[in-house]
Amino acid sequence: MINLEPVAAPGAPLARRNPVAKVAAALVFSFVLLATLDPVAPAIALGVELAVLPLFGLRYGVLARRAAPLLLGAVGIVVTLVLFAADRSGRVLVEAGPVLVTSGVLATALGLALRMLAVALPGVIVFATTDPTDLADALIQNAKAPARFAIGALAAFRLVPLLGQEWQMISMARRARGVDAGRNPVAKLRLFVSTAFALLVGAIRRGARLAVAMDARGFDAGTPRTVARRQRFGAADAALIAGAAALAGGALAVSVALGTFRPLIG
Amino acid sequence: MGGVVVRGFGWRHAGRRAWAVRGVDLRVEAGERVLLLGPSGAGKSTLLAALAGLLPHDSGEQEGTVEVDGVDPRDDRERVGIVFQDPQTQLVMARSGDDVAFGLENRGVPADEIWPRVDEALRRVGFPYHRDRPTAALSGGEQQRLALAGALALRPGLLLLDEPTANLDPAGAALVRRAVVDALGRDTTLVLVEHRVAEALPLVDRVVVLEPGGGVRADGPPEAVFAAHGDALAAEGVWVPGRTVPPRRAAGPPGETLLTADRVALPPRLAATDLAVRAGEALAVLGPNGAGKSTLALLLGGLLRPGGGRVAATGALAGRDAGTPPHRWRAPALARRIGSVFQSPEHQFVTGTVFDELALGPRRTGQPEPAVRSTVDALLERLRLTALARANPYTLSGGQARRLSVATALATAPRLLVCDEPTFGQDRRTWLELVDLFAELRDAGHGVVTVTHDPDFVAALADRRVTLTREAVGAA
User: For residue A105, how many other CB atoms are within 10 A of its CB?
Assistant: First the structure.
């Protein structure tokens, strides 16, 4: 099942911050980290991210579940690089037949995995602690995004969980009609494509009906909109972005001071 | 407020040869309550869309004029509110109160007035929850109440309802009708499109009948219109009140057992259920929303794997395959034995024409082409689809799509037919055809299982009823 609901305790001090501020802070934090290829800065950043987690009202177990695909990806990076990387420098750690693991390979692999986690986690944290409606409101009010885009995307987003049920329904209906693929991979692919097409047709029809209903309630009719839910961008929100920049900068500074800094460019 | 003047109105959707509606002259005074009737295809929904200002100039060709309070509703949408059939596609926001506020924001209502108006609209439709209630957690009837609140919050002079209860169970439909009665101000004009005339009559004081070829056939108080045109309307599929249908009782006692469900369950959707399906018997599965009726239909249809208990076919249904549960049969074998008709017909369509749609099952089950052709021709004839053989299934009307979905399940001549709400939203003509068809199948020795909310359908056809509850199942 697709789960997109926010999972944070709503009263947590950083979860309550303006959604635009949270997104901006995550972007700044991740972007600064992209500047280096060393493992030290991402390791510090990851430590910082895990340390601030309680301030977002997020439990570690919940985050682990949300970030499971990321963790899997990180493991994949380490395994792939350890087995196949061309660089075999450094001390030999393991030698078993064709498998040769050296300290150089391990450092590179761990660095890359850490870097991916450190860069992606802020986004996961922000979306796990932000209500989509609040995000759309804040994008319109604080980031001056067009309502046509933000509300339209929000309405479409609400229909996403329906697609899973719809897929199951269409698949069952096809089986009832005598259509299945058995073990033939070509037939499987064709069935997949035709089911996806039926899903698409259904989604377009539903989207069109939703658009008419929104139209009937005066959406995007040219009248200046008012807002029912005010989103405020205050000093604390600015501080969150500044704090994110400072912490990421600090991680880089430590890495430079230790001499491990490897710039992405140059 | 909300007076309507329509003069010589016609509309042809871009790319279509036929006019959806034509030659309509109509005058509705402010505060009148009008039921708009007509056989399917008479253009009721198109006229309603025109009144709501939802037919942009560039989406088709128009004749004549439509005015609400003297202006074209396209230029001044403020005066008209509309509620559509499908609850899923008219709610925009995730929280109930936000959804009502959505229209007010669009109209530029000052922020400090929005929430009092939201609360007032929710109270008028009898919305039973706090405004933070997630819209996804509401039942269909509650969602339609919310959609009504969203329309009423804008204080329209003219309220349009386009079959607002067609997708709801009887309890949900009653909720929505009560909300309309309670919420409508004296000076609000109402125009309603509804198949189920008897349920709609308490809401209206005037009936307007559209003629499919164009124009208005009848217009006046309900009693007068039905006295003069009742028979013709009933023959065309309108649910004219006070016309009962004689029940189709089984010609003989039920035959051998085809399928048994033994403590079959799928938590949390269905509690353990026992059931036997017999040849030559029409079995109705009843129960409130959420009791797992549709899930049971899918389990009996061999489309879902039970979470507990088992579904077993007898030798009479499955021959040597009787030892294998239906959900593990290959699809062609399943289609030969059990036909399933889904609640929403579009889910079932696989091909590009009505003919291919009907031919698909027989071809998949290995029938030779001449046999396929004669099967398809007979079904086209039987279900009045011959003229549509080359049409795309997705372009059919609701009644046509329903007939086609039943016909596709019959094309492989399964011994057992499992239908989920086959009569939902159908006009009287299609409804009668379905009753006759199912009765005929039963008397020819097929088993017919119908999951339904439709009491008339049960009264007309069912030989046995099983009622699911939200906790367990009890047979009656």
Answer: 23
- CA distances (Å), B111 to each of B105, B154, B226, B302, in order? 8, 14, 48, 54
Give the number of other CB atoms < 10 A from CB of residue A222.
5
Q: Does A215 touch chain B (CB under 8 A)?
A: yes
Around B72, how many Cα atoms within 13 Å sit in the side-chain half-sphere?
10
Residue ranges of the domains in chain B?
A: 4-235, 257-475
Task: Transcribe B148-178 into DSSP letters.
Answer: HHHHHTT--SEEEEESTTTTS-HHHHHHHHH
Q: What is the pLDDT along chain B (476 residues), one digit of tens a residue?
A: 789 999 999 999 888 888 989 999 999 999 999 999 988 778 898 999 999 999 999 999 999 999 999 999 998 878 899 999 888 889 999 999 999 999 999 999 999 999 999 999 999 898 999 999 999 888 888 999 999 999 999 999 999 999 998 878 888 888 899 899 888 888 899 999 988 898 899 999 999 999 988 899 999 999 999 999 999 988 888 888 888 788 888 888 999 999 999 999 998 889 999 999 999 999 999 988 778 899 999 999 999 999 999 999 999 998 888 889 999 999 999 999 999 999 888 888 888 899 999 999 999 888 899 999 999 999 999 888 999 999 998 888 888 899 999 999 999 999 999 999 998 878 888 899 999 999 999 999 999 999 998 888 999 999 999 998 876 544 43
What is the assigned CATH class of domain B4-235? alpha beta
**B369: helix, coil or strand?**
helix
Given an 8 Å threshold on Cβ–Cβ distance, is B344 in contact with A169? yes
Q: Is the Cβ of A146 closer than 8 Å to some Cβ of chain B?
A: no
Asked if A229's CB is within 8 angstroms of B336's CB, the reply is no
Strand-pair category, B464-468 with B473-475:
antiparallel
| Strand arrangement of the beta sheet that strand B257-266 belongs to | B270-278, B257-266, B308-313
The answer to whether the Cβ–Cβ distance between A175 and B81 falls below 8 Å is no
Q: Which of B84, B330, B339 sits opposite A182 (nearest CB)?
A: B330
Cβ contacts from A onto B, under 8 A? 154
Give the Cα separation of A30 and A121 in Å (integer). 9
User: B104: phi > 0 → left, psi -120 to 50 → alpha, else beta; which?
Assistant: alpha
CA distance B62 to chain A (A): 19
**Identity of the residue numbered A6:** P
Measure the CA–CA gap between B375 and B365, rounded to whole angstroms: 13
Q: Pick left, alpha or beta for residue A35 (phi over 0 → left; psi -120 to 50 → alpha; otherwise beta).
A: alpha
DSSP secondary structure, B313-339, as one string: E-HHHHGGGGGS-GGGS-HHHHHHHEE
Domain ranges of chain A: 19-139+231-258, 144-216
Cβ-contact A39, A259 below 8 angstroms: no
Cβ-nearest to A209 among B89, B106, B334: B89
- Chain B contact for A66 (CB, 8 A cutoff): no
Token pair 């053989």 in the structure block, residue: B389
Q: Tell me if residue A195 falls in helix, strand or coil.
A: helix
Q: Which pTM was predicted?
A: 0.84
Report DSSP state, residue B134. B
Contact of A163 with chain B, judged by CB distance below 8 Å, is answered with: no
Q: Does A213 touch chain B (CB under 8 A)?
A: yes
**Helix, strand, or coil here: B195?**
coil
The CATH code of domain B257-475 reads 3.40.50.300
